[in-house]
Structures are given as structure tokens and as C-alpha cells.
Amino acid sequence: MLARYLEVDKRAIIDNLETVRKEVGVSVMAVVKGNAYGHGAVEVSATLADAGVEWFGVEFLDEGVRLRESGIEGRILCFTGPVDKDDCRAFIEYDITPAMYNLDAAAMLNDVAEEEDIMFKVHLKFDTGMGRFGFTYDELDGVIDRLKAFEHLEYEGAFTHFAAAFAKKPDYTLLQLERFNKCMDKLETGGIKVQIRHAANSVAAMDFPQARLDMVRVGGALFGTAMFKNRSVKLKKTALLKAILMDVRDMPKGAYIGYGCTYRTSKPMRIGVIPFGYFEGLKVQRRNYAFHFLDLLRILYHDIMDYLRPVPIVFKDGRPLRILGRIGLQLAVVDLSGVDAHPGDEVSVAIDPIYLDDTVPRVYKY
Fold first, then answer.
1. Catalytic residue among 33, 182, 236, 283
2. 36: left (phi over 0), alpha (psi -120 to 50) or beta
3. Which residue ranges does the chain devote to CATH 3.20.20.10?
4. Which residues carry this modification: N6-(pyridoxal phosphate)lysine (predicted)?
5. Per-residue pLDDT tens for 54-70?
């Protein structure tokens, strides 16, 4: 018996894919970076490939290599490019398409492709306001001729990444899209015409139809975690963490529970021990991120409320179970007072799989 595992619903992932396809009407790239947002990149990618997905997106080269070595045959776009010639050779050997956003990397990849006597496809990346990787509009005049000189690179695609598609106001996303379209116009005027333009992530794909272009890159939407303004789009939850009660005990009044003796029973209690702690991701995730001072105030408010009135994250048969004391590395204690529970019974834990350690088994159902 597995002490704890993540149950992944492949049918729900496929249903979410079909919901996205119906809404956007263009090709969908499945973004499976970060171990498919914690769901298991290899198994999820195989399932999506069977459902007709042709493009997969990863952040790093090693993620793409793992997919190839596991039998994934579709196109793989790596959102980062090569940093040395070994990377270049690996991109070519495993037929993984790199993002290209600086001339030194382009020259290096072109040299290796020339050694192999091949034309190699890349996607040009443009920084329109994210502030990370990418060519900018202002530098394109000096870049286009250099790019055209690389005779062994084929510029199949071009893309950008939106910084604030989730924001209440659309202004910045629309500005980024305008900048990207200007980059595409300048690129074509300079003699480079790409086949695939893509800009929209999950949120932009739903809320900004004008940003769908030739393809959308969807990750969070596949796994039911993306939050849209478009309320007509309904996504399914795709994973649930399950664990068994390792032990059930009756504790007397005045007993300490957990590290630091931070919790002391005020009355006789029934407790259960679950095989899950902060190593596996319990209570590690935040429900909010601080982008502005008001965000910080909201986080502080929620943290105080969580202390005074903790949000339940462990459930048995739908009933919330209070966590008692400090969470350990791989164990936690829950309050089972008034609950019909026995060792070996199953509980569920509300956690985003992206925070779940890879050592926790993934079990797939369809």
C-alpha cells in the first residue's frame, strides 16, 4: 500500500484540452515544464500526444531530453536556448527546438549545424515587456542582417511572453502584443518571415482573443489552475493528493503534540498521523504573491487569519481535519475527534501538485 500518492485524472486533462481547443480555434502547445506542473511530464505528455497534441513546451533542455528518451515524438520547444556547444549538439541530437534570443548563441548553434551539414529550426524570442530573454524592437535593425547571415538556421517561429495577462487592467498585455506585432512587421520587412507566431499563455488565450495568433501555449489551463476573466470557460481539477492514516491514537488532556511543544491538548483528543510533511509540500505553497504593496497587505491579512482560523487542507470523507502542532519533515498530526477513523483509512490533502516533491508517486486514472 502506498502511504501517499498523487492521483492524476488523465480524462480531466483531456477534457480541459478540448475546452481550450474549442475556445481558441488555433493550434495548442501543451506546456509541460516543471514536471507538467507537478503532474508528471512523461505520462501527461504521452496522454496529450494520444489526444493529438503536436507541440510540447519545456523550460530547460534536460526536460526535453527526458521526454524524447521516454518516447515522445512530437515537436518540443525549449523556452531557453543553448549556452555552449554541448547544448547545441544535444538540441540537434534530440531534435528539440530552442528559443533564440541572443546572437552569440545563434552563431554557436549555426556553427554546430554547419558541422552536421543540416538546417536547424529555431524560434526567435522577443522581449516586449517581461524583462527576461529576448530581442527588443529597438535592436532589431542591427540584428536582422546578422540573423540572415546564419545559413544553417531556419527561423520557423517567433514568440513573446506576457508579464501581466492576469492583471485587472488589460493595458500592459495589449501594449506587449502591439510591440510584438511591430517586431513581426520589422522582421518580415527585413526579409525574415516566420511560419508560427505565438504569444498567449493560458490566461491570455482565454481573455485576449487577438493574442491567439497561430498558436497558444497552455499549461495551467490543462491542469485546471489558470484563473480567467472569461467566466464561460469551465475547467476540471486534475489531481488530488491522497494519504493513509499511519496511526490513530487517543491523547489525554495536557499532552504536547509535535516539535517545539507548540500545541497542547485542552481536552482528551483522538489524533491521526499522516505521512505527509513540508518535504512533500504541505503548507509550503502561498495563495498569493506580492506584486504591489496592497498585495503584501492582503498576504499579511490572510496569514493572520490562517493563524487565527486555519484554512482546512486535510479531509476525510469530505470532512475537514485540523492540523495539530508543527508540521514535520514528512509527518503531520490531525485532529480526529468525533471522526470514525482507523489506521489505513484514506485522507485527501488539498495541495497544488506543483509544490509536491517528485518522490511522491503519481498514480494515473482515466
1. 33
2. left
3. 10-218
4. 33
5. 999 999 999 999 999 99
Which one of 85, 234, 237, 259 is the catalytic residue?
259
- Give the pLDDT of residue 89: 98
Could you tell me the CA-to-CA distances from 100 to 96, 121, 151, 165, 224 in Å, in that order? 12, 10, 15, 23, 30
Residue with cell 534536460: 62
d(CA 173, CA 171): 6
To the query of whether residue 234 is one of the catalytic residues in this protein, the response is no
236 included as an active-site residue: no
User: Would you place residue 233 in the very low, low, confident or very high pLDDT band (cuts 50, 70, 90)?
Assistant: confident
CATH superfamily of 246-343: Lyase, Ornithine Decarboxylase; Chain A, domain 1 (2.40.37.10)
Adjacency order of strands within the sheet including 239-244: 319-321, 314-316, 346-349, 239-244, 4-9, 362-365
Q: pLDDT (tens digit, 9 = 90+) per residue, 45-104? A: 999 999 999 999 999 999 999 999 999 999 999 999 999 999 999 999 999 999 999 999
pTM: 0.90
CATH superfamily entry for domain 10-218 = Alanine racemase (3.20.20.10)
